[in-house]
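input
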Amino acid sequence: QVQLVESGGGLVQAGGFLRLSCAASGRAFSRYAMGWFRQAPGKEREFVATISASGRITDYGASVKGRFTISRDNAKNTVYLRMNSLNPEDTAVYYCSAGPITSSGGSSYNYWGQGTQVTVSS
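output
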C-alpha cells in the first residue's frame, strides 16, 4: 500500500521552470516504478515520464522529451519531475503514480496521488 502526495505546482511564466515532488508513504516505495501523468481540462490523460524502481531506466512522452527530467531518491521516498522551458501547453494537473513496471500506460499503475496544478502563462 502506497500513498502519494504531489507538491511543487504553481504559476510560472513561459520559459520558466518548476520542480514537482511526490512524497510516498510505505516501505515498498523502492520496489515500485513511478510515473508522472498530466491532464488538462477537456483532454485525455497524457503520459509524461516514468522511472524504474532502481532509477536506472527512464522514459518520457514525446512532448516533454528533452525538457523534463524524472528522478527519485529512494532514501527519501520521493520522486521528482524537473520541468524546464515550460510553455502554456504544459498547463495541466500533474499526477504522480506507482506501479510494478515502467510503463507509459496509466493502467499499469496501482496508486495515484491527488494531483498538483501547473499553470504556465504566456
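quick obs: The first strand starts at residue 3 and ends at 7.
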